[in-house]
Structures
1.
Amino acid sequence: MPTKETGKKTGPGRVRELAAYAAVLVLVGWQFWVGLIDLTASPALQGGPAATARFTVEDAARAERALGDRAAIYRALVRHVPAGAVVVAHAAPTPEAMQLVTNLRNLAYPRLVVPTATAFALLAEGRLDRPAGTFLLDLDPDHPLELGGSELLEQGEGFVLYRFRP
Amino acid sequence: MTLTVLELVWLLGVPLLVGLGLLRWMGQPCGAERGTTLSWAYLVGSLAAAAVLWIWTLTGKPVPGAALWWGLGGVGTLLAVGARRCRAGQEEAASARMAPKGPEDALFAVVVGLLLLHVLDEATARNAVPILAGDEGNIWAAKAKVLHVAPDSVSPAFREEAALFVQHPDYPLLNPLLQLGAFEVAGRLTGADSRLPIQTVMLALVLMAASALRRFVRPFVAGALLLALFTTDMSRFLAGSAYADHLVMFGLFAAVDAWSRFRMTGDPRWFRLSCLGMVFAILAKNEGTMLCLLAVVVVGSLRALRVLAGPIVPPTWRERGWLVVPFCAVLAIQAHNAVLAFRNDLFDPAVDASGLTGRLFAQFQEHAGVVAAYAWREILVAPATTHLVFGGLLVGLLVIVLVPSRRPRTEFLVPALCTFGALAVYQLVFVATPYEIDKHLPAAAVRVAMHVAPLSVMAQAMLWGDLFPALRSRERVRSPASALQSGSR
């Protein structure tokens, strides 16, 4: 409520205003602080000016190690499978194997990598009849598929690549 | 990264050049800050480049892609050099540059600079690994790859290829078309480079948000809000990715910011840019269409209820005609999908015959509690996840209720209602999900909430500036538009 002399508010209203102002200042100050702290977690600020380059190199090395098998299989696909061909990927039903198939799918395009289950559905619909041919990538050597008449193209650690001749 | 430095400059420079040219041709730049002009140029130029690439694929790619990009660059140069400059905009820019700057402004500039470096850093780090999985691989880059390889984008061959290789082939085309630009500049499919045009959007959003927030609050508060917004885990993830969510953030924020500037100044150029911001959001993701519709409904309702005063100069019918452009964008997406017989899985009876509404009622009892608890814990009151970019708005509403002597102008209601409206609609969509709720929520809830995070911080900036004069922007106090506005609601 305003006093007659100064026009300034006094009493509970003024206290509430001050409390609200303080709360907002605390909120804004906290947001500033937490933002700064999280900025320091960014790769470049973590280790000084050279960190970005170092991070990139380290990350690339880590990515290469993680790619490991993926890179070998990718090279085999590019060497043997023409663009536009379908590659039926037979893999164990584990999250890691499924992830590998997804990664290969995105890396190898325009070779079309499809999981076995999808491939059977597509075969049933007559949609796998590609002029560029169909290939089979066996990523589950413990449980190989029956591949009568198929031509072996390349065999690496953890994978076998065939030209599919049903 | 496989592009050379020159190719990289050409890839990102062409949309910027085309955008700058188009802005001048439309009577821009009218923004006072150079950073905002660059952001708008990237938005307008990206839209133009995407439109040209879309037409190019629809017409069976009559010229080589590299030649098309050169042509775009040439047109952009001609427009940027030849189009008349806007004198009013120049004067405005000059007066802004002459405005006195203090240490707090310097601190703000440092914060914006750090955030730009931060975004660049996230992008550089991520580009060490090619696009392999997730939505960026299976939806956006996948569609861009099919667009690059297929002879066109309407034939049965394209349809077959997209249906086999792309998840959600019905999704809008802005992101894939911008990635397609990278493939055409490189002349081949690339592993990580196609992320670049998408990552640049986050840089543009930082600049645009910085400019917008400074209109309402002093530099320290604007800096705090920017830091909170752009250093969340999800912002950092999006900054490095080729997802389309930050495209929605950018388009929607641009639309609301431009509309707010139009309302304050009556400058019709802002109205046009607001419409183009909506087009950007609509072409980015289907959620963009929903959010733009929500924004139009919010503004329309507030105006109809006389809660919000109109612009100081009402738009002419010619200006209102620009609203047709976002509408045409929606129609273009629908027409393209209709030709290719692509349907959205949320509405596709082949996925679930009961449809979205049927699932909403059927699953409400089972899902509502889970979804509400997740939203409260991970989005609204989540210091670690969202840095209270939404919780801060709740604090603002609480202040209005508890301190009735402080009355903010009703302008903040537009971004605030868009924020809460969008969050509410998203939670309903999660209630009606056809997928497993325990997997769908962690995969998407925070990410889609971020679509309206920039609007939430804009609403907070408006509130803090109105409620506490000590936090108000000096520019706002001096601005003639502000004096006009203070007499209105």
2.
Amino acid sequence: MDATPKPKKFIGAGHSTSHDSAARHVAGSATYIDDIREPEGTVHLAPGYAAKAACGRIAKCDLQAVRNYPGVVTVLTAADIPGVNDCSPGAGDDPVLAQTHITFHGQPIFCVVAETRLAARRAARLAIIEIEAEKPNVTVEDALAANKDVLPSYQFKRGDAAKAIADAPHQITDSFRIGGQEHFYLEGQIALAIPRENGEMLIHSSTQHPSEVQHVVAHMLGVADAAITCECRRMGGGFGGKESQAGQWAALAALATYKTGRAAKLRLDRDDDMIMTGKRHDFRVDWQAGFDASGRIQAVDTQLLSRCGVSADLSQGVNDRTMFHSDNGYFYPELSIFSRRLHTNTVSNTAFRGFGGPQGMVFAERMMEAIAIQTGLDPLDVRKRNYYTKGRDVTPYGQKVVDNILPEITAELERTSDYRKRAKAIKTFNDQSPILKKGIALTPVKFGISFTLASLNQAGALVHVYTDGSVQVNHGGTEMGQGLYTKVAQIVASEFGIPLEDVRITATTTDKVPNTSPTAASAGADLNGMAASRAAITIRDRLGEHAAKLWDVLPKQIRFEEGQVKAARKSMSFAALAKSAQLARIQLSATGFYATPDIHWDRAKAHGSPFFYFAYGAACSQVTIDTLTGEMTVDRVDILHDVGKSLNPAIDLGQIEGGFVQGMGWLTTEELVYDAQGKLRTHAPSTYKIPCASDVPSDFRTKLWKSDGNKSPTIFRSKAVGEPPVMLAISVYCAILRAVGSLNPAKLPPLDAPATPEMILRACRAMES
Amino acid sequence: MARACIRFLRNGEPVTLTDVPPMQTLLDYLRLTQRKTGTKEGCNEGDCGACTVALGSIRNGALVYEPVNACIQLMGQLDGKEIITVEDLDGNHPVQTALVKHHASQCGFCTPGFVMSLFTLHEKAAKQTRAGVNEYLAGNLCRCTGYRPIVDAALEALNTPPAPRDAAALAALQDAQDIFIGDDESFIASPASLDSLAEIYESFPDATLVAGATDVGLWITKQMRTLPRLIFLNRVRELQALHDGPDGLEIGAGVTYEQAEEAFSALHPDMARLLWRIGSKQVRASGTIGGNIANGSPIGDTPPALIALGATIELRKGSHTRRLKLEDFFIAYGKQDRQPGEFVSRIFVPKINAKASFHAYKISKRFDQDISAVCGAFHFAADGPRIAFGGMAATPKRARKTEAALAQGLEAALAALAEDFTPLSDMRASAEYRLETARALLKKALMERDGLALTQTRVLAAREVVL
């Protein structure tokens, strides 16, 4: 121990403090599930699947060689499941282990339980499986031909879009594709099940949704939810990929524990992880628009055709959100936004940062580019002309936009990025450069905050104050790197007026805060921060009353600041007051609960105000492409993003930059390739390319919008920041489109996403013809 | 008398292992045997860098640290090395403090790997540019931060000089003894001389030769192959030699990409550009020029350039050596002109004539650390053009018809490319894209030969470490 302790710092909400685990991250001492020292006798699991087929009846599943492999303890099959063979988030259509049929390539049929992970993995290859293979539906076109959906279609309508388009002075018809995306969290899916007495289990799961893992495991084992506890201290990345997708692996580990009585761990190998878990939905978008000579839209008719894979999973919410963001920041007087949720024999697609929103927004921005090309206007002018304004402020789903700051954000970014001057310089460059062409684009983001499934907009927290003045905080949100724990600790420290280091963050666990929502929809800090704040205020009020009695003042005169409790000329330390309160038999523990107010959504009528508020931002990206090879580099990016009154500017900046780069990867190098047999051919980082350091523009300028605070009463008037920045990267796609477009200014480049070098070259060739 | 153990340095102390399963990886040793869990497994194939550790070697008497991927580093490669993992730093290393200060970790899972890559960079005690750090970190993937704060942290940490280090303890572990652990059925062999290697490989021609294990490692971790007899090449003295003579380079087959960088760069700037884009720092610290040739991959990135440069190779079996043109070594997919028990021992690369012009290109989805869709090399020399491609056929292959057709002009040459090559479609690129790009590269090479500046012909010039 140091003789002189360091003075404590007061870093409440609003300050840039380090991520709570930063020092442990760099020291390698932050514990992920695979780092937990396993109980003696822990068994290890590896799932097995049919290597050659995607769908069909399981004609034969001979596991003798698997069972005989040295070190194998047992092999799990569907027949071992005592409860319900399902790990879906609700629809009941995702078997933990396939029993009679498989529906996609890589679907687990059995799971090896062995003394070592290596033995389990090697044994899993020895199964003899025969499938009466049927022809899989792989593409959007396959699914359309088969007329197969996982969920009913859904539509937003206003006016008569078809007629309005026909009557408009100008029309465009187009179809293009938007690719999916693998999460590529650095820590793969993992669960560790530990047996307790009386059939109870503790599940360590790398999950964004511990309550769902708890429920899936209990449902599968046929026991009460109360018998299962799920805990998660941190994930090595989530991005939506551990919202519904973590359940299956936890269920299998729990099943092994149930069968063997031993602790059981399942950590997927990276290739298995990429083959067996869902991804961002990919789309074909068929659309038409009618507009006037000034580029102002009169009507939009779009069909959003998404590949959902084999089951419902979260596809309803995802595809709804695609529709909710097909307007981005633009007013469509008349419209039809139609969504089909197609069934394909591929792994079921799932949540991914943005939750369908990004795909809708790519459509909107491509439309802006298309209108600009047809009218000969600068695309930024077309965008501005279509922004929501007073009187033109009702979204396709009936919500009035009352907090729009896109005109202001756009104007500032246009100025600070030097957009006009650079656009002009690029034109000169392109006129003189035979091979290389540049493009620049400034695109906005308006992203709705709240779960569109209203019941999820709730959170609980549990705060304990100990008699030495230290505080433990627990809430339903999970930490996947986004800094949620840090922000919530800052909030609690602020409420108590104590140093941040006196607030100890504890692992998310279903036995402290039950029935939680997933940490998703960017809502982690909004919901859990508010719940924790309420819990802290409850205790603070009790302490304040106690101090008021001690000092014979009014409770409202008590102030909590800088580790002290003060009133008039009296003061004592927070710790001393806590001790005094405990002796006076005052409860120093409290729960807090929050449910987002003022949101309503009638899905049947497709009308309401599903979002508590919108988050806004804009980005200006410049790229250079090689018209001979399709290679591309991002030269410069300027970002201006609105986080309301930031809870932690450093963490918010990290979310913005990181989200942008992740979005840029989705739209450029990250290509999921399925072959005609439905096999994913890009199932490892050797073939699936997320951005690396050199892909980040060397000139990368990110600023937080100077905000007076969220107009809606969120925690300390902050705004959600997890997902919206992903969509800033649409500026890169649009900049590439502009660069390709320079080859033939009258033609809309047939550029699909991701804009890989091959896609860019194909678009360049199409411009010549 | 062979030594029946491997020895390496940990925390300043020599560790001796006598019982080493041949296929054991360094990562499993660290995490499962030593319970040192700071080093993470992200992909188990050497592509993400979460398992990066620093490997210390004595080279020309000096202590050198390089980052390697522990997941595909086999224990047999570690004799005479020092292994430094994230736990061995005290938490206050300049790299660690800078990463915390710059908010450079989010989920933190990739962070130990970044720490160790940057530790090795810091040990070099050299200034770096942002582009230089980017290139150094190509083998470390981060999915959260967008890298900017990591690179900022690196640039700041480089302002602090590294602590002095003593090479003596590691130097004491260097010897010229052959190593053999196991029996005829299952063994680790690490011969110390070319003669020892030739002898043991002739005795066990079905053994697997392991140079950097950047490919063999995946046979184990991904293909789950059983490779009971492994002969490691990294201690064979003669294979590590690189001689830069007036006529060209003589490169021992065990010379790593990293060790060859300086000599390759001196041959031509495009050789440096090509090398920077092969794998990552971690891969280049382990992988060898000889391995890139001997494994016969159609998408190896050095063979096209080496063929265009007119390289020859030396093969040895027992006491017999022979030499052949590199382009003749590749016969068909998975088939090379190599007998059982025979191995590639040296590569000879002629220098480029001052009047000749040379151009090498790599086309891939991602700029850094990706496998080529097409790799093309063009050498316009006095005795005629030499053009070779990777990714266009079942082997790295010379474009002989195209070379001949060039005399009739560009159009004829572009047409001839389709006679030389019938590329395949796969997850990296379609056949059409490959052929079109190959043609584009030929056009580009000719334009550059005729004087067009690289800043006008290459979009990627902006990313380069040195322009």
